[in-house]
Automatic annotation (TrEMBL):
GMP binds at D99, T100, G101, N102, T103, W141, I142. Transmembrane segments: none annotated. This is Xanthine-guanine phosphoribosyltransferase. Belongs to the purine/pyrimidine phosphoribosyltransferase family. XGPT subfamily. Its cofactor is Mg(2+). Mg(2+) binds at D96. It is a peripheral membrane protein.
Length: 160
């Protein structure tokens, strides 16, 4: 599927840190978690923040891909599975966002007993995630800080 988002939402490092710490706070008590599984690549930074806040030292990754920038491909492709043989029991699976839910549905089949959390959620996928911090409209494209850099913008005055 290829489409153009008609709204954009730019997330700063500070905002991502704040929202992910809120996600971590909701996963207390920390002792219930054996480990964290990051959905690479978008879940890597949130996973590092969750691991730090929850004092979890086992951090694994599952590497999948389903988008070429804003164009969604038909299938989710598994590039690397989790290292341990697990049904997900005691693991938190973390991603930056759930959009259509395709990635999450695919991973739930592999890790049926894990808890799935994301920082952001769009309506089509939000029922599929166990916890998220902020929701956005389906048409909004989220830009994460690792995909952006600061640049100059002209002042409003003079641009009319
Ligand atoms: O709910 P969905 O419609 O499946 O979309 C959400 C997924 O899409 C993005 O990953 P992407 O496949 O672009 O790879 P990346 O994490 O390496 O950027 C995002 O990080 C989620 O993993
Ligand atoms: N960066 C980014 N990746 C996505 N993958 C699916 N939806 C999105 C989105 O809104 N932003
Ligand atoms: Mg991803």
């Amino acid at each position: 599927m290829s489409w153009h988002a008609n709204r954009e939402f730019f997330v700063s490092w500070e905002e991502l840190h704040r929202a992910t710490k809120e996600l971590a706070r909701r996963q207390l008590p920390a002792e219930q978690w054996r480990g964290i599984i990051a959905v690479s690549r978008g879940g890597l930074v949130p996973a590092a923040i969750l691991a730090r806040e929850l004092n979890v030292r086992i951090v694994d990754s599952v590497c999948v891909s389903s988008y070429d920038h804003q164009a969604q491909r038909a299938d989710v492709s598994l590039i690397k599975d989790v290292s341990a043989t697990t049904d997900g029991e005691g693991f938190l699976v973390v991603d930056d966002l759930v959009d259509t839910g395709n990635t999450l549905k695919f991973l739930r089949q592999r890790l049926p007993r894990a808890k799935f959390v994301t920082v952001y959620a769009k309506p089509a996928g939000m029922e599929l995630v166990d916890d998220y911090v902020a929701d956005l409209e389906q048409e909004t494209w989220i830009h994460f800080p690792w995909d952006m850099h600061l640049h100059y913008v002209d002042p409003l005055a003079g641009a009319e």
